[in-house]
């Protein structure tokens, strides 16, 4: 399939997904049955021997269910806009196909820096990370990860590209170790209190971790095959288009399913 046609399909699928999830959210109209806000803390007391410190937690950002729903829909809309840019070859400017011919796509990394960082924000909330600064730093770290993809495609030295790949995989692991660690800590804490988290939350992180890794695999294959006689950058651009939709659809559809479920999992 030609890139132009593939991007037209991607534009349509993401736009329809935005409409679909928005319709599902509007039809159900209920709050998630777990706390989605972000907090910080201040020291409220210190014992005379400095061994016991009292902490007072306060809400920094009230992340409502509606905000999460809006972000999920916005991820699809933003991606649809970028694919419309690709499908029309830069809205008729020739900017997109000219990039592909040169063996890179700088616009893709801008798209990913926006959309995937929004995804990390939602995943942080879903994982039970309550500290505002931690969520902020994970989002920044993911944006840095996307910038590595940009430098990887722009670079000419293969050793530098390999280093960028290694750093990229390390960042992915760091982000998801934080997500997994916080999720299972919250799971144990809630369980010790005799409460249950919604069961659908158990199946969010592992697929998303694998999707994030898959983008790195495509980048690695791209670097490994550069210089070969049959090398064609458009092939890897197509892989990114497929993965982009599948990853967003996986998260967006599943979270829509979870957020709009009846609150039967709440004790």
Topology:
Elements (H helix, E strand, L loop, with lengths): L2 H26 L9 E9 L6 E9 L3 H23 L7 H7 L4 H21 L5 H23 L3 H35 L12 H21 L7 H27 L8
Antiparallel strand pairs: 1-2
Helix pairs in contact: 1-2, 1-8, 2-4, 2-8, 4-5, 5-6, 6-7, 7-8
Given the helix and strand composition, which structural class is it? mainly alpha
What's the shape? globular
- Share in helix: 55-70%
Quantity of strands, as a count: 2
Low-confidence stretches: none
CA distance, first residue to last residue? 50 Å
Spatial strand sequence of the major β-sheet: 1-2
What share of residues are in beta strands?
Answer: 5-15%
Largest sheet report: 2 strands, antiparallel
Radius of gyration: 21 Å
| SSE string | HEEHHHHHHH
Q: How many DSSP helices? A: 8
Please, what is the average pLDDT?
89
Describe this entry's structure for a reader.
The chain is mainly alpha-helical and 267 residues long. 69% of the residues lie in helices and 7% in strands. A two-stranded antiparallel ribbon has the order 1-2. The protein is globular. The model has no long low-confidence stretch (mean pLDDT 89).
Descriptive labels:
single chain, 267 residues, mainly alpha, two-stranded antiparallel ribbon, 69% helix
In short:
By secondary structure, the protein is mainly α.
């Amino acid at each position: 399939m030609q890139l132009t046609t593939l991007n037209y399909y991607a534009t349509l699928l993401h736009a329809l997904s935005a409409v679909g999830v928005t319709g599902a959210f509007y039809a159900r109209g209920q709050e998630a049955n777990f706390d989605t806000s972000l907090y910080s803390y201040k020291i409220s007391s210190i014992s005379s021997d400095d061994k016991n410190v009292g902490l007072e937690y306060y809400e920094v950002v009230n992340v409502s269910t509606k905000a999460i729903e809006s972000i999920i829909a916005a991820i699809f809309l933003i991606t649809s806009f970028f694919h419309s840019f690709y499908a029309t070859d830069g809205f008729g400017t020739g900017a997109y196909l000219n990039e592909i011919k040169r063996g890179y796509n700088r616009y893709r990394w801008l798209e990913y820096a926006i959309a995937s960082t929004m995804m990390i924000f939602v995943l942080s909330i879903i994982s039970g990370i309550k500290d505002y600064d931690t969520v902020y730093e994970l989002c920044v770290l993911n944006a840095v990860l996307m910038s590595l993809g940009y430098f990887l495609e722009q670079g000419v030295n293969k050793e530098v590209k390999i280093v960028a790949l290694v750093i990229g995989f390390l960042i992915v692991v760091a982000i998801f170790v934080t997500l997994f660690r916080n999720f299972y800590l919250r799971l144990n804490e809630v369980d010790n209190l005799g409460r249950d988290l919604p069961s659908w939350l158990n199946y969010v992180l592992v697929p998303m971790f694998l999707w994030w890794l898959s983008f790195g695999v495509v980048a690695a294959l791209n670097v490994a095959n550069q210089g070969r006689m049959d090398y064609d950058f458009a092939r890897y651009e197509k892989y990114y288009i497929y993965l982009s939709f599948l990853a967003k659809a996986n998260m967006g559809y599943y979270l829509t399913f979870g957020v709009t479920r009846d609150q039967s999992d709440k004790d």
